[in-house]
Amino acid sequence: MKTIIIIPARMASTRLPNKPLALIAGQTMISRVYQQAKKTNLEVMVACDSLEIANEISKIGGKYVLTEPNLPSGTDRIYEAYQKLGANHDVVVNLQGDLPNIDPKLILQCVDLLQNSNCDIGTLASIITDKEQINNPNVVKIALSSQKQALYFSRSAIPYLAPTKLESHFSQNIDSKNAVYLHHIGIYAYTKSALEKFVSLPPAKLEKQEGLEQLRALENNLKIFVETVDSHPISVDTMADLTLANQICAVEND
User: Fold this and answer.
1) Does this model's pTM top 0.85?
2) How far is the C-alpha of 153 from the C-alpha of 174, rounded, in Å?
3) CATH superfamily membership of 3-124+184-253
4) Over the stretch 148-196, which tens digit does the pLDDT of each residue have?
5) In the chain, N or C terminus with fewer CB closer than 10 Å?
């Protein structure tokens, strides 16, 4: 299947303005994400809302498409870029532009999940091993069926466990595949038809309440399958995340 990775990037992040151009170990975040994506040997494009981002991608010999700045979601942004490119790919990967140390193998796992299962959208998650992340709204959790199908995404702790059960749970082997809490990774692989359906739909009630666009898909009966993987890239949403990303990437560069 002909596949393209499109990285949505915009300057007007509410929690961390100008996030794509934030420096991480001497390199902009969007440049890092682009270069990690290129290691998959798939076609890669940045869908950006400004010339500042476009110029940064040009500096590293990358490809970009300028999109309207006021689109309602990152998926709407990648779809506009996809249309401008001719809409001739079978699989479109939406790779979030705030994952500076994303492992290229994870991107390929997401594509494989979509291609080898009966779903509309494929995505990834990792098991939460730090219980402080459970109630962190910046950590998106997933309720998952036994068939790997996403039932719900939330910034709240899902599924709920009574406090005594929670403590008992974390005293056991949290690294097992039976662990309760899953941390979503910001990458989606769409079939062409699923992407077209998604952007034709208005923002959904739960999507707006949680601030999670993937809930638009679930509310409209698009099937999302989730592969659980062993590593989790850092997602940069705050200044504290940016500080941590600098520390991690500085070590990786050594």
Assistant:
1) yes
2) 21
3) Spore Coat Polysaccharide Biosynthesis Protein SpsA; Chain A (3.90.550.10)
4) 999 999 999 998 766 655 555 555 444 434 447 999 999 999 999 999 9
5) C
